[in-house]
User: What shape does this take?
Amino acid sequence: MVQNYIYPRATFGEEPWATRLKAGPDELIHMFRPEDIHVVVMGGETNGYWRIMGGSYQKTVSVDEWR
Assistant: This one.
């Protein structure tokens, strides 16, 4: 995803990606703001595209807790 969609925008100077591209090799950068990440998964099998994006399992929460 980053290689195909974000890297080209960074190389053309689009911010904030252009600045992040210039970061040092040991500098920690955030590609996405935590408040912009919302993941909801309900049943089904693992999607192959999810694995490509580097997603990982965090926890299981009962749907009943959300009612």
